[in-house]
Design brief:
single chain, alpha/beta, Spore Coat Polysaccharide Biosynthesis Protein SpsA, Chain A, 3 domains, seven-stranded mixed beta sheet, two-stranded antiparallel ribbon, elongated, binds guanosine-5'-diphosphate-alpha-D-mannose, binds manganese (II) ion, membrane, transmembrane, GtrA_DPMS_TM, transferase
C-alpha cells in the first residue's frame, strides 16, 4: 500500500545525526503509513552507507545517493520526485527540527485540509534556540525582506521544516529554482494559487554533531531568490544586487568626503587646468567607495567567482580600471545627452535638464560597468568554493 506521508531528509555529512533522526521520526509517525527518503549527495563521511544499514531496522526508509549535482534545494526536489505519499514533509536530518510536531503537521493536512504547513521559530511558542547574534541578525533581516518584498503571509518563510501537499508540489515544481537553500520560499513565492497555510511553532535545536552548511553563498543566493521571485520577470537579480552595492557606494563616498574634510585634507595643484584646485577629499571619497564596492561585490554579488588571497590585489586593480572607464563613460554620456539632445528643448530650466542628463548618464555608466565587471573583473568560471 502506498504511504500517505513522505518525509524527505536531505543529508550531507550527517552520519552521526541520521540514525537518531530516522529513529525519532519513525516513532513520531508510528500512527501513519509513511516513508522516509534520505537524499544524500555522496557525503564524504558516507552518510549514504549509514542510511543503507538503517534500512534493516527501518524498512520504510529509502536512500537516494546522488553522484551528480549538489545542493539542498535540488536534493529536496529529487526526494519529492521519488516520493509516493500525498503529503511531503521536508526536514533537516541534523536533529535541529523538532520531530514532535510532525503528527500535528500531518493532521493539518488531513483534518484541516491545508496546502502547506510549516514549522516556525518566529511565532508564539517557537524560538530560534541558541543562536549567535550574527545569525539572529541575518535571519531577522532575511525574514523582513521576504515578508516585505514578497508579502508572504507567514512568520518564518526561511524555515527548512515544512509539509506540502503533493498537488501543490506538482503545480509549482516547474517554476522552482533548484539552486540554493530556500526551497520553502520558492514554493511560497512561486505558487500560482493562494495557498491555505498553517504554522506550528517549535524550538530550533542546537547541533550536536557535524556542522552547518549555511555560508555566504547560501545567504547570497537567498537574497538573489527574493529579488528573482519579485523582479525576475523584468531584470537580472545579479544586476539588482550589484546596484544595491553601488547605492551603498554613494553613501561611502559621501562619508569618505566628510571624514577627509574634517581631517582638513588640502586642495592641491595638479597642473591640469580644468582640475585645479584639486580636492583631495573628493578623491578620498571616490577611492573609499571604489574599495568598498570592490569588497562588497567580491564577497557578495560575485561571491562564487571571488578573488581571494594573493589575487585580491589583481582583482582590485581590474575593478579600479573598470571604475575609471565608468567615469569616462558617464562624462561622455552626459555630454552627449545634454548637449546633443536635451539642450534643444525650450521651456525647461537648465538645471532640470542637466539633472536629467546626469541621472541618465549615471545609469548608462552603471550598465556598462556591470557589463565590464561581470565579463572581465569576475569572469573566471565559478569554482566550487562553498
Ligand atoms: N543532500 C544535501 N545536499 N543535503 C544538504 C546539503 C546538500 O548540498 N546542504 C545541506 N544539506 C542538509 C544537511 O545535512 C541538513 O540535514 C539540512 O540539509 C540543513 O542543512 P544545515 O547545514 O543543517 O542548515 P542550517 O541548520 O544551518 O539551516 C537551517 O535553517 C535555515 C534557516 O535558518 C535549515 O533548516 C535551512 O533549510 C533553513 O533555511
Ligand atoms: Mn541544521
Amino acid at each position: 500500500m502506498r504511504p500517505s506521508v513522505s518525509v524527505i531528509l536531505p543529508t550531507y555529512n550527517e552520519s552521526k545525526n541520521l540514525p537518531i533522526a530516522a529513529d525519532r521520526i519513525t516513532r513520531s509517525l508510528s500512527d501513519y503509513r509513511h516513508e522516509i527518503i534520505v537524499v544524500d549527495d555522496d557525503s564524504p563521511d558516507h552518510t549514504w552507507e549509514v542510511a543503507e544499514h538503517l534500512q534493516e531496522k527501518i524498512p520504510q526508509l529509502k536512500v537516494i545517493r546522488r553522484l551528480t549535482g549538489k545542493g539542498l534545494s535540488s536534493a529536496v526536489l529529487t526526494g519529492m520526485g521519488a516520493a509516493e505519499g500525498e503529503v511531503f514533509v521536508v526536514m533537516d536530518s541534523d536533529l535541529q527540527h523538532d520531530e514532535k510536531i510532525l503528527p500535528e503537521m500531518i493532521r493539518s493536512f488531513y483534518e484541516r485540509d491545508v496546502d502547506l504547513c510549516l514549522g516556525t521559530r518566529y511565532a508564539k511558542g517557537g524560538s530560534t534556540g541558541k543562536w549567535s547574534l550574527a545569525r539572529i541578525g541575518i535571519s531577522r533581516f532575511a525574514n523582513f525582506l521576504a515578508k516585505g518584498l514578497l508579502g508572504l503571509p507567514v512568520s518564518d518563510p526561511m524555515s527548512g521544516y515544512f509539509g506540502i501537499k503533493r498537488s501543490v508540489y506538482s503545480d509549482t515544481k516547474n517554476a522552482i529554482n533548484p539552486r540554493g537553500f530556500k526551497i520553502l520560499l520558492e514554493f511560497l513565492g512561486r505558487s500560482k494559487e493562494n495557498l491555505k497555510i498553517e504554522e506550528i511553532p517549535y524550538t530550533f535545536q542546537t547541533r550536536m554533531y557535524g556542522e552547518t552548511k549555511l555560508n555566504n553563498s547560501v545567504i547570497k543566493s537567498f537574497f538573489l531568490a527574493i529579488l528573482d521571485i519579485r523582479f525576475g520577470k523584468w531584470i537580472s537579480p545579479t544586476f539588482l544586487l550589484y546596484s544595491l552595492v553601488g547605492a551603498s557606494g554613494v553613501l561611502v563616498n559621501l562619508v569618505g568626503f566628510l571624514i577627509a574634510e574634517l581631517c582638513k585634507f588640502p586642495d592641491v595643484q595638479t597642473g591640469i587646468s580644468f582640475l585645479d584646485p584639486f580636492s583631495l577629499s573628493v578623491l578620498f571619497g571616490i577611492e573609499l567607495s571604489i574599495l568598498s564596492n570592490f569588497f562588497l561585490n567580491n564577497y557578495f554579488t560575485f561571491y562564487e567567482r571571488r578573488y581571494s588571497g594573493k589575487n585580491l590585489t589583481f582583482g582590485f586593480l581590474v575593478f579600479h580600471s573598470v571604475s575609471m572607464v565608468g567615469i569616462l563613460v558617464q562624462m561622455s554620456a552626459f555630454h552627449f545627452i545634454y548637449y546633443s539632445i536635451f539642450k534643444q528643448w525650450n521651456g525647461v530650466s537648465e538645471l532640470t535638464l542637466k539633472f536629467g542628463a546626469d541621472i541618465l548618464s549615471i545609469l548608462t555608466a552603471m550598465v556598462s560597468n556591470y557589463f565590464l565587471n561581470s565579463n572581465l573583473t569576475w569572469s573566471q568560471k565559478p569554482e566550487l568554493k562553498t
